[in-house]
Amino acid sequence: MKDTLRLREDTAFKRIYSKGNSLANKYLVLFYLKKKQEYNRVGFIASKKVGKSVIRNRARRLMKEAFRLYSSDIQRGYDLIFIARVNMKDAAYKDVEKAMMHILKKSKLLKQVKKI
User: Fold this and answer.
1) Percent of the chain scoring above 70 in pLDDT
2) Which strands sit side by side in the sheet containing 78-84, from one edge to the other?
3) pLDDT tens per residue across span 58-110
4) Per the domain annotation, does 15 fall within a domain?
5) In whole angstroms, what is the distance from residue 22 CA to residue 101 CA?
6) CATH code assigned at 9
7) Vertex 50, ends 26 and 44: CA angle to 5°?
8) Does the residue 114 lie in any domain?
9) Where does the secretion signal sit in this chain (predicted)?
10) How far, CA to CA in Å, does 69 sit from each of 36, 48, 74, 116?
11) Please, are residues 42 and 1 in contact by the beta-carbon 8 Å criterion?
């Protein structure tokens, strides 16, 4: 995840939720907001609705790995928040990867599209 930082502060999350755009599919919700910096910041969230801690951590790991594959192809200058949906607890990695590619294509954040 070169040129990508983690979103950590609560005010940044609230700003993205209130001013940003959102998209969703079966496994993921994406909130994104254009900013002036030349790097991306990203946050990964799995709420208690997804499952207990082991399942939530697995969901975050799956999202992080799928994002890592496409991070070099994403346009710079965005704050991104990926939220796991309840369906992700039963999902395989390939399903999450396809959902990640789908939601990034839908948001038009990908510079170029990789073949799976």
Assistant:
1) 93
2) 4-6, 40-45, 78-84, 28-34, 21-24
3) 999 999 999 999 898 999 999 999 999 999 999 999 999 999 999 999 999 98
4) yes
5) 15
6) 3.30.230.10
7) 75
8) no
9) none
10) 24, 26, 10, 11
11) yes
